[in-house]
Design goal:
The complex is a heterodimer.
Chain A lengths: L2 H10 L3 H10 L9 E3 L7 H5 L9
Chain B lengths: L1 H5 L13 H8 L8 H8 L2 E6 L6 E6 L48 E6 L7 E8 L4 H6 L5 E4 L7 E2 L16 E6 L10 H12 L7 E4 L12 E4 L2 H7 L1 H4 L6 E7 L3 E9 L9 H12 L6 E5 L2 E6 L1 H7 L9 E6 L5 H5 L13 H14 L3 H11 L7 H13 L3 H10 L7 H12 L20 E3 L8 E5 L4 E7 L15 E11 L5 E3 L5 H4 E6 L5 E8 L8 E8 L6 E10 L22 E5 L7 E2 H6 L10 E6 L2 E8 L3 H7 L5 H29 L3 E5 L2 E5 L1 H19 L2 H8 L1
Parallel strand pairs in B: 1-8, 12-14, 16-23, 24-25, 24-27
Antiparallel strand pairs in B: 1-2, 2-7, 3-4, 3-7, 4-5, 4-6, 8-9, 10-11, 10-20, 11-14, 12-13, 15-17, 17-21, 18-19, 18-22, 20-21, 22-23, 26-27, 28-29
The chains are: A mainly alpha, B alpha+beta.
Chain lengths: 58, 735
């Protein structure tokens, strides 16, 4: 699958379950070795989780 | 950023704008976005589009901005706390935290798709998917928490070349800029994105730099009358819809130049107690839905964006304006505060101020200044509608109060809350007669004819054009200026004006005797200066020199009222003089209103003598119809009056069992006594114990005050229970 097709598959996914299915059906692309920690640090999880209390100002 | 880069200006260079306002003026001269057609055109550049099924709404956010090359994703979109905008003064956000704040609300798996192409149109269109990592069993044992991660393919952000892409944007194809898709975005109470999200975002974007589109999809809400709505901030909405919702004659603004804090502009919007064709209850519901979706009554803003808020509890409890709590919106602009002070105020969550000394100090300034502002007159005006001529109720109360003496504990509780030693009523009548004296002949006033722009501005009471102001050491002074400009001049959206104040020269009478000119200083360093917006031709400036300013010191103040092409300047020569002799304190008169049990006032559907009508209460913004039993009126935490509804459904239904006049009178008395004393007891206990209340609203806990709580308790069958289930009836059921 080329990058353009992959982008449109993800962009047009209507639900998060559809995104999960794309991830599961394309194991090679979404292999764990292709995922990198956001902010280059796994410990930023708490920073992200605690940043906003409400979805609108976020 | 895009416009700045397109203009060849390095965003963190000295040539770059220093503020959001400056950036708009520089990069969008003559934009005129208040014209709908122009606003719509500009709004196409930032779109928030609904996607997915109604029960799992995703948001697509498009921004025709700077964009990023795929190779720069990791240092921009995907970095955290890098602070690569800290030296850029005309943007929101400083620490690359913007996009990440929304991740938490992206469904179970936290999926977020980020795609972008740089504005220079040179590189490729890059994209990545972010998710919350699903830990393996081993990872669950080894690592305390999970993490967020993003996708790269072959160690590179995936990309592909584009000329343009059809991404179902409104009125355009994607060429450059950025797109973020937030999957399954959880937003309680928001269904139709073009309307609900628009209203909600409007409250957080009080005065955004650029207009934005919120867009719904026909397949999701086929009956929605309007799929696209522009969003251009609450200030513009209030301005546009002021005639429908606002009591415009009471709106005002004040600017405080506060030493150590900087400049704070406070704008107060006063909502009508009844909008046309609606009662106060419906008006309140509509106003809350339209303007208080997030329960924010006091908005603390920075560069047009809200960074913290207080609920209506601040108005009722801190400002002690109970009657106005649902009718005020107060915007506190913190953009021109001293940076060190401002940095200590706000949190990343943008939902409240930090619980620190600075926030307390700011709130104290608001309480002090708003406590002597136009709000005092407004409060008095609305409260005057609620006073009654007759005092019969108090006589009945005295009799009942005597009866209370039978129970010592009950008396103790009530005495701790209310002072029961009511002085004789005659005294107060005498006082009133003395106070009022002979009626003064009314002055004939010429109606004020406001102008859109000022044609005059001068200090009131100045002799021969010399404006000399003497302020006693450690004292204060209010100076009034005459003008003919409209009240809304400083706060209107289109072509607003402002009052500029600067200290030109400061001469200090120092210990060596001579006077020495000093360097010009900002007023906020030297003296507290508050300025008010025009009020029917008068602009007030209040001056309160700090302790550093001594007798003999003098300074010149330049006051400029801006006006297109022709500003008006006034120069004041301020001299600090000997402090005033302390006034002999007046002997304290017995204040009979502040003691004793609160009176009750009977309320009927129609107007009656010595009573109030539903309409009287509604005019003051108090909801009253057949469904309510009572309304407790609080003033400075004191129960001032209890309005008892004699046309309530509860009483009507209770009285339907009786026929004779005596029975009906007894029923009335039982009702009044029950409602009155139960209100009194609940109030006394609640206040003594310091209870605070919240109730669920849109899935969130909303703070409510004592008035609302008591009123709701009585409206919710409590009074029905009181009337219909006396102790005897309850005992019978035990047998």
């Amino acid at each position: 699958m080329n990058n353009k097709t992959l982008f449109f598959l993800l962009f047009q996914a209507q639900t998060e379950e559809e995104v999960t299915k794309i991830v599961e059906d394309n194991g090679q692309i979404f292999d764990q070795k292709n995922w990198f920690p956001y902010g280059e640090d796994e410990n930023y999880f708490a920073v992200i989780e605690n940043q906003q209390a409400s979805p609108i100002p976020a | 950023m895009k416009k700045c880069l397109e203009a060849g200006i390095i965003p963190n260079s000295p040539e770059a704008p220093k503020s959001m306002d400056e950036a708009i003026a520089k990069f969008y001269p003559n934009h005129n976005w208040d014209l709908r057609q122009n606003q719509r055109k500009q709004a196409e550049n930032i779109q928030i589009i609904a996607d997915g099924p109604k029960n799992q709404t995703s948001l697509i956010i498009y921004d025709d901005g700077e964009g990023q090359h795929p190779q720069d994703f990791e240092t921009t979109f995907l970095s955290l706390l890098k602070g690569n905008k800290t030296e850029i003064h005309f943007v929101q956000g400083k620490f690359n935290m913007g996009g990440s704040g929304s991740l938490v609300f992206c469904g179970k798996y936290r999926y977020q798709l980020i795609a972008s192409k740089k504005f220079d149109n040179k590189g490729e269109f890059g994209f990545t998917l972010i998710r919350r990592h699903k830990r393996t069993k081993e990872e669950q044992e080894a690592k305390r928490h999970t993490w967020y991660e993003f996708l790269k393919i072959d160690n590179t952000i995936p990309s592909f070349p584009i000329t343009e892409l059809d991404l179902n944007l409104h009125n355009r194809k994607f060429i450059t800029g950025s797109i973020i898709k937030l999957y399954a975005y959880r937003m309680k109470g928001i269904t139709d994105i073009s309307r609900d999200l628009n209203l909600s975002l409007n409250e957080y974007l009080f005065e955004p730099a650029l207009p934005v589109y919120t867009i719904e999809k026909e397949e999701r809400y086929p009956k929605t009358p309007q799929m696209q709505r522009e969003l251009y901030g609450l200030k513009r909405r209030l301005d546009k819809q002021s005639e429908t919702y606002l009591d415009t004659e009471w709106n005002f603004s004040e600017t405080y130049h506060q030493p150590g804090m900087g400049v704070i502009k406070v704008t107060v919007y006063v909502f009508k107690s009844r909008i046309e064709g609606k009662n106060s209850k419906d008006s309140r519901t509509i106003i809350r839905r339209e303007f208080f979706k997030n329960n924010m009554s006091v908005l603390y803003g920075l560069n047009g964006q809200i960074q913290g808020f207080d609920t209506s509890v601040f108005i009722s409890q801190s400002l002690k304006l109970q009657l106005l709590k649902d009718h005020l919106l107060i915007h506190v602009d913190c953009s021109h505060m001293l940076p060190d002070f401002r940095d200590e105020l706000f949190m990343a969550s943008r939902d409240r101020l930090k619980d620190g000394d600075e926030a307390k100090e700011l709130k104290a300034v608001l309480i002090k200044n708003l406590g002597k502002s136009k709000l005092v007159d407004l409060y008095k005006h609305r409260k005057d509608n609620l006073s009654v001529e007759g005092e019969d109720a108090n006589d009945i109360l005295k009799n009942i109060a005597r009866g209370l003496g039978l129970n010592k504990e009950l008396m103790n509780l009530i005495q701790q809350t209310f002072k029961l030693d009511i002085p004789p009523k005659e005294k107060s009548k005498e006082k009133e007669i003395k106070k009022s004296g002979e009626p003064k002949p009314e002055k004939e006033e010429t109606p004020f004819q406001p102008k859109r722009f000022p044609t005059a501005f001068r200090m009131k009471g100045s002799k021969d054009g010399s404006n000399i102001v003497k302020i006693p050491e450690n004292g204060e002074k209010t100076i009034r200026f005459e003008t003919d400009v409209e009240n809304h001049y400083f706060d209107r959206v289109e072509e607003p004006g402002e009052l500029k104040i600067s200290i030109l020269n400061f001469t200090q009478n120092n210990a060596t005797g001579g006077t020495q000119p000093g360097a010009p200083k900002e007023p906020s360093e030297l003296i507290t200066i508050n300025e008010s917006s025009p009020d029917n031709g008068t602009i007030k400036i209040y001056m309160n020199p700090s302790g550093e300013v001594k007798v003999g010191d003098a300074f010149e103040v330049k006051v400029t009222l801006t006006n297109p092409g022709n500003d008006f300047d006034q120069f004041l020569f301020v001299k600090i003089v000997e402090p005033d002799q302390p006034k002999e304190p007046k002997p304290k008169e017995a204040d009979d209103d502040a003691s004793g049990l609160p009176p009750y006032v009977l309320v009927y559907h129609e107007a009656r003598e010595n009573a109030k009508s539903f309409d009287d209460l509604e005019s003051a913004g108090i909801s009253m119809d057949h469904s309510f039993t009572m309304h407790p009126q609080l003033e400075n935490d004191k129960l001032e009056k209890i309005f008892i509804n004699m046309d309530s459904t509860v009483l009507k239904s209770y009285k339907s069992k009786f026929r004779t006049e005596d029975q009906l009178k007894t029923a009335d008395r039982r009702y009044i006594t029950s409602v009155y004393f139960h209100t009194l007891m609940l109030f006394a206990i609640t206040k003594q114990k310091g209870y605070q209340f919240t109730k669920p609203e849109n899935g969130q806990k909303t703070e409510i005050d004592l008035t609302e709580y008591l009123k709701d308790v009585f409206a919710s069958h409590y009074s029905n229970f009181l009337l219909n289930f006396g102790l005897e009836e309850l005992m019978q059921n035990l047998d």
